[in-house]
Amino acid sequence: MNIGEAAKASGVSAKMIRYYETTGLIPKAERRTSGYRDYSPADVHNLRFIRRARDMGFAVAEIQELLGLWRDRSRHSADVKRIAAAHVEELSARIAAMEEMRSTLQTLIGCCAGDDRPDCPILADLEEPGVAVRPDAQARLRERAIANRRG
Amino acid sequence: MNIGEAAKASGVSAKMIRYYETTGLIPKAERRTSGYRDYSPADVHNLRFIRRARDMGFAVAEIQELLGLWRDRSRHSADVKRIAAAHVEELSARIAAMEEMRSTLQTLIGCCAGDDRPDCPILADLEEPGVAVRPDAQARLRERAIANRRG
DNA sequence: TGTGGGGCTTGCCATCATGGGAAGGTCAAG
DNA sequence: CTTGACCTTCCCATGATGGCAAGCCCCACA
């Protein structure tokens, strides 16, 4: 199986397959006499695992751990669960950070006329945080931030 | 004012101040005879604007636009609002993607014993999506995904 | 058997924002 | 005058991915 076929079958681009090989995430592929890489169905199986883990946002280093556990038939599921839970924590942290940004911006957008005039609370807040937004808007902002944390 | 003082006063690291200069985001700083960069309070004001915009997740290219509008006293607030709204859209898309990852992972984690035994629905799902999770768990997954979209 | 088009190889560059470090010049306090 | 902290430039690294270029390989069709 050529690298292109393996790419199509696994959903991992040929470029990334080579990259994963150089970084040691996957073993070096067999070569045919032509120099072409040759992939088995088992290799594709591996690549699909990687693809799926990437889709869940795992970093390559974490996938390396997961692959190790996958291959280890005497693994403890607790180890897998720990990795997954840590990743969920990181996702949650990033989500919270972005929700805070979004919430701030939505408040500012709600205060901006969005017309031909130059007055703009968005720019005013960038210039001096908190001054441009009226107190009631700030209250809404705080409430929304709390709601986001609950959601 | 030295670059280090400007960094402390603005919250932008000296490294990043130099970087912003090379990329044209800020004008080239004045130099003293020694070659040291020299910053005015107005420069620090600029840098704080940039810092705040970065904190809201704007990319440097977007900040360039925002700075242009900030300086343009005949700007239309609609232009600022458009940029901010586009950024909110992008934040929302990224948040949704990560919430989906998190939701999937939380479902799998909820199905994993997390003990000494090797059986692990997390690995099983990475190996073959959807097979390891019982139908009721998949239903919970869908509901949670919908709830996330509402949140 | 020749040929053309598509696939493969390696290698280098770019992204985006940020940090690290080295080699060497400057400043200010003691 | 020395010393330590600060500044300068330049280069390198990150992480995952794509793009491009020069050159080789393979297969199908004429």
Question: What are its keywords?
Answer:
homodimer; Multidrug-efflux Transporter Regulator, Chain: A, Domain 2; 151 residues; transcription (chains A, B); cytoplasm (chains A, B); DNA-binding (chains A, B); mainly alpha; two-stranded antiparallel sheet; DNA-binding; 2 domains; 7 helices; transcription regulation (chains A, B); disordered C terminus; 68% helix
Summarize the topology.
The structure is a homodimer of 151-residue chains.
Chain A: H1 3-10, H2 14-22, E1 30-31, E2 37-38, H3 41-55, H4 60-71, H5 77-111, H6 121-127, H7 135-150
Helix pairs in contact in A: 1-3, 5-7
The first copy, chain A, binds a DNA duplex (30 and 30 nucleotides) through residues 2-4, 13-16, 18-19, 34-37, 54, 59-60.
Characterize the structure shown.
With 151 residues, chain A is an all-alpha fold. Chain A is 68% helix and 3% strand. Chain A has seven helices and two strands, in the order H-H-E-E-H-H-H-H-H. Chain A has helices at residues 3-10, 14-22, 41-55, 60-71, 77-111, 121-127, 135-150; strands at 30-31, 37-38. Chain A has a two-stranded antiparallel ribbon. In chain A, strand 1 and strand 2 form a beta hairpin. In chain A, helix 1 (3-10) crosses helix 3 and helix 5 (77-111) runs antiparallel to helix 7. Chain A starts with a helix and ends with a helix. Chains A and B meet through helix 3, helix 4, helix 5 and helix 6 of A and helix 3, helix 4, helix 5 and helix 6 of B. The structure holds a DNA duplex (30 and 30 nucleotides).
